[in-house]
UniProtKB/TrEMBL annotation:
<protein>
    <submittedName>
        <fullName>Type II secretion system F family protein</fullName>
    </submittedName>
</protein>
<feature type="domain" description="Type II secretion system protein GspF">
    <location>
        <begin position="172"/>
        <end position="294"/>
    </location>
</feature>
<feature type="transmembrane region" description="Helical">
    <location>
        <begin position="6"/>
        <end position="23"/>
    </location>
</feature>
<feature type="transmembrane region" description="Helical">
    <location>
        <begin position="105"/>
        <end position="124"/>
    </location>
</feature>
<keyword id="KW-1133">Transmembrane helix</keyword>
<dbReference type="InterPro" id="IPR018076">
    <property type="entry name" value="T2SS_GspF_dom"/>
</dbReference>
<keyword id="KW-0812">Transmembrane</keyword>
<feature type="transmembrane region" description="Helical">
    <location>
        <begin position="130"/>
        <end position="147"/>
    </location>
</feature>
<dbReference type="Pfam" id="PF00482">
    <property type="entry name" value="T2SSF"/>
</dbReference>
<keyword id="KW-0472">Membrane</keyword>
<keyword id="KW-1003">Cell membrane</keyword>
<feature type="transmembrane region" description="Helical">
    <location>
        <begin position="277"/>
        <end position="297"/>
    </location>
</feature>
Amino acid sequence: MTPAWWGAVLGAMLAGGALLVVARVRVLRRPQLAVRVLPYVRDLPQIGRVPLVPSTSATAGVFGPPLRSAADAVERVLGGAASVRRRLERANIDKTVHEFRVEQVLWGVVAFAAAAAVGVLRTLSAPGSAATWLVVCVIAFVSGVLARDTHLTSQVRTRERRILAEFPTVAELLALSVAAGESPVSALDRVVHRSGGELSADLARVLADIRTGEPVGAAFDRMAAVTGLPLVARFAQGIAVAVERGTPLADVLHAQAADVREAGRRELIETAARKEVFMMVPVVFLVLPVTVLFAFWPGVIGLSLTTP
């Protein structure tokens, strides 16, 4: 074939590819039936919901299926969907397990891309190291996937630390409101509207469940089952028992707030004891050798000068 024929074939292929891309983008930008109908049936349960990004986005149409397939593969390899779901609830992250797996895949892809970029630059200077960098890219992908799981655990710990810091104040406010004559629901409503934080958000969900008709004891029992903090679980169970059996609620809340403050004081003392050990490391390995050197070095120099 002559160069003119090759140019015509390549131009036709380029034009056909451009037409396919334009046609596909127009189809993706067209609102789907589910997008038009679902806003009017939001009260119906959505079982198996696995959204990635809005369905009208071209990015979802192009990269959505591969990411979902990769997320399913990560789920089959790692497992532990129940643990992930519980940690998402404890971290107050409104995502499904599948959405979290997609995020893990994205973190892995970013790590893979970074390692691949470095590998390509190094391979250009040393062509024999391509296989080694391929292994490094695979390790980077796995590390990115595991890093997202570790970050979720750190999010859970950070949120629970904030809850423990807020708990004594919230418990005292509830106790004061109940002692002033308000009902548990009214006291809970007052505290939720006057405070802000992670524990207040959990109590706001409990209040919303109570207002939809759920018994107070059942709502606090579910809060005790979801939380991962024993102190908060005892707090919720104590309120549930006090409401069901009619025991003095204010005394229970004051006692629990005092227990939390005492536990925080003990933890602070234990942390200070651990930090004291770590503080000895620079003293022993840095300050003490320098002090000994300053003390004995002049004597060593003097002996070397006076010896015949």
